[in-house]
UniProtKB/TrEMBL annotation:
GO terms for molecular function: double-stranded telomeric DNA binding. It comes from Chenopodium quinoa. Keywords: Chromosome, Coiled coil, DNA-binding, Nucleus, Transcription, Transcription regulation. This is MYB transcription factor. CDD domains: SANT_TRF. Binds preferentially double-stranded telomeric repeats. Residues 5-57 form the Myb-like domain. InterPro entries: Homeodomain-like_sf, Myb_dom, SANT/Myb, SMH1-6. Residues 95-123 are annotated as: Disordered. The lineage of its organism: Eukaryota, Viridiplantae, Streptophyta, Embryophyta, Tracheophyta.
Length: 123
């Protein structure tokens, strides 16, 4: 399936890095069409450039995608971990819940809750 893999040369890597500096990451077709880089990268496709750029960045950071995901979870603990255990959801009380609790056992009167269209009648 497809052409056999070709090892990237130092010249091709340098052209890719210079192309990204000039045009930005993700502008693979623009880099390939640029006369400054087209002669060096003539045997590469836009997908080749994208894959190589991703691999260069993973190598430079020293972390693979799994390690990056683990670090992201450690930095942002609000993101739930996916596992087979059912999660426990704590009920967060709203202002309306608090008003309902206050209404129990008090004399009859009508109360409008701020920022709400609900009206509560005390009995």
């Amino acid at each position: 399936m497809g052409a056999p893999k070709q090892k990237w040369t130092a010249e091709e890597e340098a052209a890719l890095k210079a192309g990204v500096r000039k045009h930005g990451s993700g502008k693979w077709q623009t880099i390939l069409r640029d006369p400054e880089f087209s002669n060096v990268l003539c045997s590469r496709s836009n997908v080749d450039l994208k894959d190589k750029w991703r691999n260069i960045n993973v190598t430079l950071s020293g972390l693979g995608s799994r390690e990056k995901a683990r670090l992201a979870l450690k930095r942002n603990p609000q993101i739930p971990k996916l596992d087979d255990k059912p999660s426990v959801v704590n009920h967060v009380r709203s202002d309306e819940d608090a008003v309902e609790d206050e209404l129990v056992g008090t004399p009859s009167e009508t109360v409008q809750v701020a920022d709400s269209k609900k009206t509560y009648t005390r009995s």
